[in-house]
Amino acid sequence: MKNNEKDQKNLIREMMLESEKQDYLYTAGNYWKYYEKNILKQIDTNILSKFRSWQGGSGVGNIQSFGGGSELKGRSFLRNFHPIDDDFNFIDNSTFVRKYNSLINKILKHIPFAKYLLIRTAEMKIYYKNAYASYMVEKYNLIKSMDKRLVDISDSSFGINESDLVYINGKVYTHRFLNQLKIINYIQKNTKFDSIKFVFELGAGYGLLASALLKLNTKIKYFIIDLAPTIFFSEYFLSNIGYKVFGYRQFIKEEKIDLDKIFKDYNVICLPSWAMNKLEDFNFDLFINVASLQEMEKTQAYNYLSFLKKNPSKYIYLNNLITGHKKTTKENTFGVLEQTTFESVQKYLDSDFKLNTKDTDESDYQAIFEKK
Questions:
Q1: How do strand 245-246 and strand 268-272 relate by DSSP bridges?
Q2: What are the distances in angstroms from CA 130 to CA 62, 165, 204?
Q3: Is residue 354 pLDDT above 80, yes or no?
Q4: For residue 73, which of 58, 85, 88 has the smallest C-alpha distance?
Q5: For labeling, which of 182, 344, 357, 361 is most exposed (least CB within 10 Å)?
Q6: Is residue 156 part of a domain?
Q7: Which range marks the domain in which residue 324 is found?
């Protein structure tokens, strides 16, 4: 998927138009409908190849909602700005501000009160990025202490502005990538990890966990199902970091999707949610869902999980909110109309899968189920 910017954005529009024709079970639920419009506006007004440095924040509808955007300058919930957004660089990095702060710094030796005259945000950026880098090193060392093999792999710089990159031992790492390594460590400890060859991830964001698993084990074949426009970014990211991806253009030419046949030629398959109707039988070794079952209406979540009853995976890894996402009583407002809780998911899976392990952290859970 290395076409020009115009073609790529036209492809997203094509996906969205096709999405609108699909059965409710395969479209955005109330939670995502609230976000969708603003995300599409952001796509239209930004350069795709820098999507991991776009401005972002939760609760307002932008690419950070599915893992993209700048993590260095991610905005707080429902805030439309960050105090060190790149928009302010023309002020903070200006010759006048640098010389002015330098002058105040010299005066401070003699007049301590002068510190209240500093233009503090310009100075704060340096401290903030250094603190962020230090935090990354601490997290890197924590992952290394869990399993030093995990840090043999690293993130890609694709999609990130050079000024936002953090290097550790000459490799690029991001906070989000290190979080994926923590997930992999959990899966490794609670499954026969070396036997896993086929992975199905429902709702993969832009494919960061997929990239980590593919780097860690080059024999793995990876299948991703997601809503548009998110599935575009999975295909876009993974193809641009070197994986051979069967994506939307190939999908629309096929009457049936034979995964076994496609995997002989491709590392990764990225398909929109409604592709579930085209899939032929295929058994995966591991099914993954991180933070998207919680965003679905319960009937939609059950519809996707029904695939596992027909095509059971050996293992299921889930990481979501225990009680599901915030509930709302009105359509087109923030939240879900019917929550998908851990209890409801476990009850749905109970006839075919046993719960192997479960850990909770405040409002979240991660769990491994195994086929009975």
A1: parallel
A2: 26, 12, 30
A3: yes
A4: 85
A5: 361
A6: no
A7: 5-72+176-371
> Are the C-beta atoms of 101 and 123 separated by less than 8 Å?
yes
C-alpha span between 295 and 203 (Å, rounded) = 10
Q: Residue 71's CB: how many other CB atoms inside 10 A?
A: 20
DSSP codes, 276-294 = GGGBPP---SEEEEESSGG
Counting every residue, how long is the chain?
A: 372
SS3 268: strand
- Bridge partners, residue 270, by sequence: 224
pLDDT band at 1 (very low <50, low <70, confident <90, very high): low
**pTM value?**
0.93
CATH number at residue 185: 3.40.50.150
In a domain, 84, yes or no: no
Instruction: Measure the CA–CA gap between 371 and 354, rounded to whole angstroms.
Output: 6
Question: How many Å apart are CA 236 and CA 239, to the nearest integer?
Answer: 6
Amino acid at 281: D
Plot region of 299 (φ>0 → left; ψ -120 to 50 → alpha; else → beta): alpha
Question: Is residue 44, in this structure, part of any structural domain at all?
Answer: yes
Q: How far apart are CA 72 and CA 139, in angstroms?
A: 15
Strands 353-361 vs 315-321: parallel, antiparallel or unpaired: unpaired
Indicate the residue type of 286.
L
pLDDT greater than 90 at residue 93: no
First CA to last CA distance, the chain: 40
Q: Residue 347, Cβ neighbours under 10 Å: how many?
A: 10
- Reported as a single tens digit per residue, the pLDDT across 299-330 is 999 999 999 988 889 999 999 999 999 999 99
**Neighbouring residues of 248: CB distance < 8 A, sequence distance ≥ 6:** 11, 14, 15, 231, 232, 235, 270, 271, 272
Tracing tokens 């085209």 back to the chain, one arrives at: 278
Total structural domains within the chain: 1
Q: Do the Cβ atoms of 27 and 273 come closer than 8 Å?
A: yes
Evaluate whether residue 141 is within a structural domain. Answer: no
In sign, the C-alpha dihedral spanning 247, 248, 253, 259 is: positive
* Vertex 209 angle, CA 149 and 134, to 5°: 65
Amino acid letter, 259: L
| CA neighbours closer than 13 Å in the CB half-sphere of residue 112 | 0
